[in-house]
């Protein structure tokens, strides 16, 4: 039920680490446990049904807004889609579109802004009602208004699911309960922002040089 940020220099292994959760990658040794269960001992379908993933590159197909939110989720109702969109703060722009949820969008979402595409992707992930939500630099290329909306969404779902964020912005990091610091494929430290500033020189450097201020 926590919000956990994963930070580190480029190439430190952040995406690799979180890609192991849905078994997009398999660890060479050791194991990953969720609530004490080794994920290698459960079916892939049951594992991935528990996980929602939003990446920096949003997949949008040619179709309606509703179809894009419901993509990959069977038997979702229009009410389910609307609730997910509201939680993702996507309803504000969807309601302004010519045909609302039935508005057609271009391939790869060319007719939408980056923030709109990301909010649709988050709504799609939330429609799955995941117990784990993974955001892989999902706010790195969007405007400050969309970033604030997505941050609010993350706070709202806290407690309903665990949120793991590969953070690109300092505001995102500061809004998390815990921060995991990676370097050269290893976790080198973990703690709160204040704790890490005093114990982890790499984290202190990251906050000064790599983590962008809100709206940057």
Structure description:
This protein is of the alpha/beta class. 37% of the residues lie in helices and 19% in strands. A six-stranded mixed beta sheet has the order 4-7-8-1-9-10. A two-stranded antiparallel ribbon has the order 2-3. Strands 5-6 form a two-stranded antiparallel sheet. Helix 4 packs across helix 6 and helix 6 packs parallel to helix 7. The model has no long low-confidence stretch (mean pLDDT 87).
How do the strands and helices of this protein lay out in sequence?
Elements (H helix, E strand, L loop, with lengths): L2 E5 L6 H6 L13 E2 L2 E2 L5 H5 L2 E5 L7 E2 H5 L8 H10 L3 H4 L9 E2 L8 H14 L4 E5 L7 H14 L4 E5 L3 H5 L3 E6 L2 E6 L1 H7 L1 H9 L7
Parallel strand pairs: 1-8, 1-9, 4-7, 7-8
Antiparallel strand pairs: 2-3, 5-6, 9-10
Helix pairs in contact: 4-6, 6-7
Strand order of the largest sheet: 4-7-8-1-9-10
Number of helical regions: 10
The protein's oligomeric status is single chain
| Biggest beta-sheet profile | 6 strands, mixed
| Spatial gap, N to C terminus | 29 Å
Order of helices and strands: EHEEHEEHHHEHEHEHEEHH
Count of distinct strands: 10
Low-confidence blocks of residues? none
Strand content: 15-25%
The radius of gyration computed from the alpha-carbon positions, rounded to a whole number of angstroms, is 18 Å
What is the average per-residue confidence, as pLDDT, rounded to a whole number? Answer: 87
Overall 3D geometry?
globular
The structure class reads alpha/beta
Q: State the share of residues found in helices, binned by percent.
A: 25-40%
């Amino acid at each position: 039920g926590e919000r956990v940020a994963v930070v580190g220099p480029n190439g430190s292994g952040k995406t690799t680490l979180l890609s192991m959760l849905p078994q997009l990658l398999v660890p060479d040794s050791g194991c990953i446990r969720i609530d004490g269960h080794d994920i290698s001992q459960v079916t892939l379908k049951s594992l991935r049904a528990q996980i929602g993933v939003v990446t920096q590159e949003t997949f949008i197909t040619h179709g309606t807004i509703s179809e894009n939110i419901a993509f990959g989720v069977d038997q979702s109702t229009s009410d389910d889609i609307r609730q997910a969109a509201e939680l993702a703060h996507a309803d504000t722009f969807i309601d302004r579109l010519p045909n609302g949820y039935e508005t057609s969008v271009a391939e790869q979402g060319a007719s939408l802004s980056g923030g709109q595409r990301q909010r649709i992707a988050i709504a799609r992930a939330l429609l799955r009602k995941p117990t784990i939500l993974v955001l892989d630099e999902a706010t790195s290329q969007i405007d400050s208004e969309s970033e604030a909306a997505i941050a609010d969404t993350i706070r709202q779902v806290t407690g309903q699911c665990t949120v793991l964020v590969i953070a690109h912005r300092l505001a995102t990091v500061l809004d998390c309960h815990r921060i995991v610091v990676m370097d050269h494929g290893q976790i080198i430290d973990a703690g709160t922002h204040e704790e890490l500033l005093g114990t982890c020189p790499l984290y202190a450097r990251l906050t000064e040089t790599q983590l962008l201020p809100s709206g940057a």
